[in-house]
Structure formats: structure tokens, C-alpha cells
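Dear colleague,

Thank you for sharing your sequence with our group. We've completed the structure prediction you requested, and as agreed, I am returning the results in plain text so they can be pasted directly into your records. Please verify that the sequence below matches your submission; if there's any discrepancy, let me know and we will rerun it promptly.
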Amino acid sequence: IIAYGNPMRCDDGLAWRAADQLEGKFSSADVEILRTHQPAPELAETVSRSEAVIFVDAASGEAGNGQPGEVRCAQVGLPQSPARFSHQLSPGAVVALARQLYGASPRAFSVTLTGECFDHGESLSPVVAPALPVLVARIQALVQQFLLPESFPPDSDKA
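Please find the predicted C-alpha cells below.
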């Protein structure tokens, strides 16, 4: 689980809070939880050692990312064109880099909660705070699907 965002920017820190709530819910031998400010090239090595990876982030309400408080889960696709080298990559670019550098092809999903307030501060907005348990439950269910392969056929896009 890769939780990313800025915990000092209100709703942008919700992934770190979800990671805190998920800590200890799974065996550390089965699930590694990372917190970072943004997806970066350095994550490709970690992703390459995984059978599956879940990227967790706050989405902005712009560009059709849902209404504040809405949880979304989607399979991460590989980018159509090579990623430009940057300190910040999309989840798909991190997975593509893991494939290119290490020959790894883990299943990858993005689980987002649409935020409302990205101002400076440490508190979640009133619409996002009650949705955090829904986000955590969705991630837990997805992890369980990965840990119990019979409930998650390899070719299934269901998440």
C-alpha cells in the first residue's frame, strides 16, 4: 500500500490517515504500508517486489474525479507514452518503470477519496472525515482479495 499526499494540506493528507488506520490490520510479511508525499521513481524498486500494489490518494473534484467524499477504485493502467523523468510520477508510470527496470508486472489499483479542502492545515474537511472509514474498508477489502486469490481471479478487473 502506497499512501501519498501532504498531511499538512487538509484533505490531501487523508491517505496518510488511512495508512495509520490500516497499520497492524495485516501481517507485515504480507502487506507493506508506505507513506510518501508523491509517487517517485524510487518507488519502482519497491513495486517490483510486490505481487500487487494499491496507491491511495486524495483526488481533487476537478476533471471528473467525483464529488467530495466519494471513494473510487480503479485498476492502474500503464501509460501509452513513456513517462518524462520527474520527481513526481503517476501510479501507472511507477508501475511501468518497475516493469522496464525490473521486469515486474504487479497488479496495481488506485483507491481515491475526493477531497474538498486542500488549504494549509491538519484537519479533514467535514465531508471527507466521515468518508475516511469507507476508504479504509475499501482498501481492506481489496487487500483481502489479493491475499485470497480464489476470490480474485487473475484476469478479473473487479475490485
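Summary note from our side: The longest strand covers residues 52-59.

Kind regards,
the structure core
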